[in-house]
Write a structure and sequence with these properties.
- The chain has 131 residues and is α+β, with helices and mostly antiparallel strands.
- Helix content is 24%, strand content 33%.
- The protein has two helices and six strands.
- The chain has a six-stranded mixed sheet, with helices on both faces.
- It is globular, with a radius of gyration of 15 Å.
Length: 131
């Protein structure tokens, strides 16, 4: 992660979950059409600008620039099949991590998956700021 991480923006799209507006995680979850988790991984496998590796059971796909990372849950993960996509974005001289998710589990499990990544992003930010 970049040493310039200042703030984490979370915009979450939960594929199989709906939530009340502005719940405790601060996002509006909703059903969204589009690619399934499996279709997304298949498309990324065919993209020559994406490298894919296995990391502690997770399938991690990284765009050539290193600015976009998809983390696909292992089969034994309670939220499987799901992925979390994090994209490093520069805006107004600051660096942000835009995080979105496609989750195939019930809302409480999806919420926990998102919370885990929020904590991961916050820990990286603290480490980079010397905290």
């Amino acid at each position: 992660m970049s040493k310039f991480i200042v703030l984490v923006f979370i915009s979450v799209f939960l594929g199989a979950c709906a939530s009340d507006p502005k719940d405790e995680l601060g996002y509006d979850g909703f059903n969204r059409g589009g690619e399934t988790v499996e279709e997304t991984l298949s498309r990324l496998r065919e993209d020559p600008s994406v490298s894919i590796r296995n990391e502690r059971g997770w399938t991690v796909a990284t765009k050539e620039s290193g600015r976009i990372i998809w983390s696909f849950t292992p089969t034994e993960h309670p939220a499987h099949p799901s992925f979390v996509k994090r994209e490093v974005i520069e805006k107004d001289g600051s660096i942000y991590i835009d995080t979105s998710a496609r989750c195939g589990a019930q809302k409480s499990v999806c919420d926990q998956l998102v919370q885990d990544f929020v904590e991961l992003n916050n820990n990286v930010r603290k480490q980079m700021s010397g905290g």
